[in-house]
Design a protein that fits this description.
The complex is a heterodimer of chains A (about 325) and B (about 325). Chain A has 14 helices and two strands, in the order αααααααββααααααα. Chain A is an all-alpha fold and about 325 residues long. Chain A has a single domain (about 25-335), classed as ABC transporter involved in vitamin B12 uptake, BtuC. In chain A, helix 4 crosses helix 9 (about 205-215), helix 6 packs antiparallel against helix 7 and helix 8 packs across helix 9 (about 205-215). In chain A, strands 1-2 form a two-stranded antiparallel sheet. With about 325 residues, chain B is an all-alpha fold. Chain B has a domain at about 40-250. Chain B is built from 14 helices and no strands. The relative contact order of chain B is 0.17. The chains are: A mainly alpha (about 325), B mainly alpha (about 325). At the A-B interface, helix 7, helix 12 and helix 14 of A face helix 6, helix 12 and helix 14 of B.
Chain lengths: ~325, ~325
């Protein structure tokens, strides 16, 4: 929004508009800049911790685990910009992966089972959308309900055993490489570019910001708010299904507790990337940078022999600090 | 006569009546399908399943009435339980109440921290407590060195709280839980601050204009919620006889939220009673116990909790809309 006011500085208003802030301030005081600086600091600290870090392919390898969450976080960014939230994607990942595995076990060929899983993901997303848009319930509490429901259904579907024995061509997506880059990372980068262009460059993208800034104004401006929000929730489900399949391929087997607690990581990526929790602000670029930041931090901690369990502490702390910081930056810019 | 039927009508229009009818119907239906359910033994099992949820539900209910949500209570419960367990293990010479006080105090402190972050930075409580959910769980792993507190270290008198009874065969922990519920009722319905919590939840903008100091009241609500989660940690130790950093209280917040919303507490704040919440907790406990008796696999439990939250949201919405309609109709008349 602020860049647009700069394009037309001479506002002929009755009331004097505040003098626009200098351009360098607009560029520098952005949450994404903070994320970028943090990323650089993290890389410097981490490479001092371990010589492994100078090795770029090591980072790429370790990022395959996170790219599943990162892809979903990109779409979650759009959902949060539109003023809603979805806490159920990790459970959706588990349920779709279990749908895939259960139908494979029942004799469905792999490609058909994959299609089934993606359709299931779309339906689960549409169900979230139905509750939020048609029944007008707050998305935050609806998706807490579906977080529990979808995970529970995954448990019903798969029991407590892990379903595996997939054919070899399906397993090990994270070991496949194209141009020396693991496939999951390529998918993530590709999705970032496509979604980044859509959100930043298209009318549809601007409409998402408009909805998040003021839903009432958006409706009066003729934006099809309900359709767009529904579309975002369905896209969320579809993306989660793809991420679920990627996880199934990486792990080689599926259990109901796949991606447990993943919603925290996803929300953390979006918040670290400077998306405003109340909607209307945020970029795909921010989430993209934040995903790498998280990869570096997590791998750095693993390299430094910090146990997985205490990484929880760091993740929780980061989430709280990042919302406080983003909030502060936006409050400053609003003045 | 007329007045009597009117008050009966009022009684039945109350949400609690609906939950009570559901509870009775559920027990009758399950009792018919599987007569084994209709026994004193079942009642005992349900009664023992309730205290843990009931105590934390009282705190969560207050938080939700004030239009917030506390997702971190499962981690607070685990943290408090493990710290109490470590005191029991490493300082066996200290009296039991030291561990109990430490658990409640730690819970209150963690709850207060939630409240401080929410009120100072004006952030949505659900995201803040999602962060502290993870933060507190991580800290509890660090504090306990990822080690379980084994059954032999939990003091015998504490475990006996779940087994022995002062009167009528009702175990101590059940009595404690209902005492907490009674206190909560008096606090919410008969004290100034209690009523202010409802006022804040009904209309956070109007509340300060009425001279209510929103920040201290909100802080108090979060602190009480944390303290009760701490007490629930002690009940956990007493009931299960061990504390495990990776198990104790994980996912507990969803059970409690399910119980609270079944009890008719509106997620939009300002609406909800202790009686309704107690009935909601009992209903959830009864469902929990009925599932294995009916031969339904335990795997269904989480799915049912999730479905229950969604159904309760839909019911709450329709009740609210009906309330609005009757309000409009009343104004026209």
């Amino acid at each position: 929004m602020s860049t647009e006011t700069h394009a037309t500085p001479q506002v002929s208003a009755v009331r004097d508009a505040a003098t626009p802030r200098p351009r360098w301030q607009v560029i520098v005081f952005r949450p994404e800049t903070v994320t970028f600086l943090l990323l650089i600091i993290a890389i410097i600290v981490a490479s001092n911790l371990s010589p492994f870090f100078a090795n770029f392919s090591f980072i790429l390898e370790s990022s395959t685990y996170y790219s599943e969450y990162s892809i979903v976080a990109l779409v979650l960014t759009m959902v949060i910009i539109s003023g809603e939230i979805d806490l159920s994607p990790a459970s959706t990942m588990a349920l779709t992966a279990c749908t895939f595995a259960a139908s494979y076990q029942a004799g469905v060929p792999i490609p058909a089972a994959m299609v089934l899983a993606v359709i299931a993901g779309g339906l689960l997303g549409a169900f979230n959308g139905l509750m939020v848009i048609v029944f007008q319930l707050p998305s935050i509490i609806v998706t807490i309900g579906t977080l529990t429901l979808y995970r529970g259904l995954a448990q019903v579907l798969a029991g407590d055993k892990s379903i595996g024995k997939f054919p070899t061509w399906f397993v090990g997506l994270d070991y496949r490489e194209l141009l020396g880059i693991p496939v999951p990372v390529l998918i993530f980068v590709g999705a970032s570019i496509v979604l980044g262009l859509i959100v930043g460059m298209t009318i549809f993208g601007r409409q998402i910001y408009q909805i998040g800034t003021s839903e009432v104004a958006a409706r009066h401006a003729g934006i099809r708010v309900r359709a767009i929000k529904m579309g975002l929730f369905i896209l969320m489900g579809l993306t989660s299904a793809v991420a679920g399949l990627m996880a199934a391929s990486r792990l080689g087997s599926v259990r109901y507790d796949l991606a447990t607690g993943g919603e925290l990581q996803m929300v953390l990526m979006v918040m670290l990337g400077g998306t405003y929790i109340f909607g209307g602000r945020g970029t795909i670029l921010g989430t993209f940078l934040a995903s790498w930041l998280l990869v570096i931090i997590a791998t750095g901690m693993t390299v430094a022999n910090i146990v997985i369990t205490s990484q929880l502490t760091v993740m929780g702390l980061l989430l709280i600090i990042s919302i406080i910081a983003t909030n502060a930056i936006y409050a400053r810019n609003q003045r | 006569m007329n007045a009597l039927s009117q008050s009966f009508g009022l009684l039945f229009r109350r949400r609690e009546a609906g939950i009570f009818v559901m509870l009775v119907l559920f027990c009758i239906v399950v009792g018919i399908i599987q007569p084994r359910f209709a026994s004193l033994e079942t009642a005992r099992i349900v009664a023992l399943a309730i205290p843990l949820i009931l105590v934390s539900a009282m705190g969560q209910m207050m938080v939700i009435v004030a239009r917030h949500v506390d997702l971190s209570i499962g981690s607070i419960l685990g943290f408090s339980a493990i710290v109490a367990g470590m005191i029991f293990r490493d300082h066996a010479e200290l009296p039991i109440f030291v561990g109990v006080l430490a658990a409640i105090g730690l819970g209150a402190g963690l709850g207060l921290l939630n409240g401080l972050i929410v009120t100072i930075f004006k952030l949505p409580s659900i995201i803040v407590t999602l962060g502290t959910l993870s933060l507190y769980r991580g800290l509890l792993f660090l504090a306990s060195d990822s080690r379980q507190v084994d059954p032999q270290y939990i003091p015998k008198p504490l475990i006996q709280m779940s087994q022995t009874s002062p009167i009528g065969g009702i175990p101590w922990i059940v009595i404690i839980a209902f005492a907490v519920a009674l206190l909560t009722y008096f606090f919410l319905d008969h004290t100034r601050i209690g009523r202010q919590i409802y006022a804040i939840g009904s209309n956070p903008t109007a509340a300060p204009l009425r001279g209510i100091r929103v920040v201290p009241v909100t802080l108090l609500v979060f602190t009480i919620s944390g303290a009760l989660a701490g007490l629930a940690g002690i009940i956990y130790a007493s009931r299960f006889g061990y504390v495990n950093p990776g198990i104790t209280g994980v996912g507990f917040e969803f059970t409690v939220i399910a119980a609270v919303v079944i009890g008719g507490v509106s997620i939009n704040g300002g609406v909800g009673t202790v009686l309704g919440t107690v009935l909601g907790v009992i209903l959830l406990g009864a469902v929990n116990v009925a599932l294995p008796i009916l031969g339904v696999s335990a795997f269904w439990q989480d799915a049912i909790y999730g479905a229950v939250i969604l159904v309760a949201l839909l019911i709450d919405r329709s009740v609210r809309r009906r309330g609005l309609k009757s309000l409009v109709a009343g104004n026209r008349a």
